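Priority: low. Protein: Protein phosphatase PP2A regulatory subunit B. Input follows.
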Amino acid sequence: MSEDHNWKFAQCFGDKGDSDDITEADIITTVEFDPTGDYLATGDKGGRVVLFERNESKKGCEYKFHTEFQSHEAEFDYLKSLEIEEKINKIKWCKRQNSAHFLLSTNDKTIKLWKVFEKSLRVVSESPVAPDAPQPALRVPKLTHRDTIVAAVPRKVYANAHAYHINSISTNSDGETYLSADDLRINLWNMDISDQSFNIVDIKPANMEELTEVITAAEFHPLQCNVFMYSSSKGSIKLSDMRQSALCDQHAKVFEEAEDPANRSFFSEIISSVSDVKFSQDGRYILSRDYLTLKIWDINMDNRPVQTIQIHDQLRNKLCDLYENDCIFDKFECNFSADGQSVLTGSYSNTFHIYDREGKTDIALEADKNAFKAKRLGSAKNKLSMARGGAKNGMLNDSMDFSKKILHASWHPHENSIAVAATNNLFIFTE
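Result:
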């Protein structure tokens, strides 16, 4: 564990009360910086989206509340007798073209395009006419500015295109299209057309009893608008070019590492399932996360990753217990830093790890209520050593708290600042 770094706790948003007060609806389920890094969005299990904006009056990377709106409501599918949760699975910001912000949010079934803008509230007031006017008693109504509010309105609703749960949305570099992925299909949308999409990947077998894998995540290439990738529960990543075929699942470059037969077990397929994939900003590398490892792939080399980082190696002999308490199915996200030289992923006991690309440093930080106590103790060094010590002890003493997990995080697109979701709290760490 590296000691020579300057990462420190900067901010925390959310309830500071006891964990007993937390309601299920308040749990944060997605975190996303916008392309400028000046805005930050979170979505929660209650279907709410909360936006934060950078506080320019303060030095460093500090944010303040911008607005909050209800994005999705709970629904009931009467045809399938199925409840559809309001939980926000993903949020993606669109490229900003004017003073308004546009962002996509999705639950399991429906994607919405939101417009967020500042709106002037005006009130009608009567102003008297000039005294020399023919009718001095006449009052002329006049609109006067009273206040400015931040409004959010749904511009498009993209519904009825997914039979299974949506796990990913990704905006394209062309600024006009985006993809949405569920367990078995990936659809391509034009932002302006809400009632039609193109199916670009379909892995559904003719007989569902022959189903062997599902799609777990999908993302567009950051620079090439015709290229995208998707990962599967079998541990593979496929890189596809939409120019090659209307359906891209048969025409793809497959990134897959051969498994050592000696390590084969009942849990092999579960722990090899890829929970998240991300491109580096230059599009050269792919970062993937499965249960126990982070892998970095060069898009020009598909037979093995250029680097494998062990995240939970100490849990290999506890897979049976983790299967019993369902933790083995936890889906951890991963992120590249802005310069592509570091990678980030979450763990248990509310800790997350930052690794450098050479694998020489493993910085473990804790996003927990203890940060508030540490802040009161004083210096950044104190609070960092406390955070690091807590994480370190939790790992070495084998006392991981599996009820506290960092699944969702986002790395600032231009700076070394990280937004981390820990239950119902949003933590900001900066270097």
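The chain is about 10% helix and 40% strand. Residues 377-397 have pLDDT under 50 and may be disordered.
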